[in-house]
Input
Amino acid sequence: MTSKSHSHPILRNPSALETPFPLSRGAEQHDSQSHVIIVGAGSSTGVPAARCLTRSPVSCAVCLDATMPGSRNWRNNPSALVQHNGKTLLIDCGKSFRPAMLRVLQQHRDRVQRIDGVLLTHAHADASFGLDDLREWIWRKDENDRNSETPMPVYVRDTDAASLESTFPYLFDRSRATGSGHVALIQFHTFSADEELNIVGIPIQPIVVEHGNNCECLAFRIGDFVYMSDVSAIPEEQYAKLDSEHGLELLIIDCTFVEREISSHVNLPQALELLRRIKPRKTLLTGLTHDFDYDFWTRAFQRNYATALGARAAGAEPVETTVAVSETLTVSLPCLDIELAYDTQLIPLSSIPTPAPQATAKL
Output
């Protein structure tokens, strides 16, 4: 039998590199549309959990499902892209930033061509330890000339800057880099929590929330959209920033466990209590551990909301439905549109206003 020799398609044809990440026709048409892309919807450890996959047999159905192609149970550190008027802002850049962004490119390369700025909620590892990997996203006037790079603006709360600098001294001062010295070219900007921001043309209002004992984190309001990835409680005085004449269009909010209580994050019953007060038109739960099976909770939330809509259509007052989670926990679901967020999810926005003049940034 005569054998045929096949050379590697990428070596034969460099254009084959385009195949895994096709660029959709008419990509420029997306520039005027505002939307959010979920980079990661997981907790600080992500899903699947290694401790689950190394057991024999594997007993965690969520972690096992997460290993399957296309599973929405696969979750990277919490992070999101906000796109408005052709600009892209990254909120948080955690430990899993690089692999998470590669997954985003597989789904949305036509929409995500560059990152124009980065905004951090706090300085924990799952929000900031991917900053070094921004080197691949630094824009160059000449792609082949590293000296033509334009600094990436990274915005961090003034009270978090010292912690970041102690972790990444070489990103604050490149002369402190070792080895080749090739590190991300970043320009850090600090701001106070009571300061309204305008970053790459996107108006942002910080909201201070609690994130465990003696720890604060920032949520961000952009028009009628709020991103709140890490929260254990919302101080009473901050609720005014969550009010809206027409209600919030979208709330993305932390929800780490179904039943387990910890000091740094709300669990499902606690998150639902916050939603009953805020009453957003649409909610996505993020920061999810392997407690949450995407298919199970999608069915539960959809049934609940459909029941509420049916009651309203019939002129009746909607009644909360319940879900038996375990022998010890039954959860009552508010009559709201709630979903689990998933990595690479795309959500259109319609309410980003024209920002006020740019605030003076501190370096």
The radius of gyration is 22 Å.
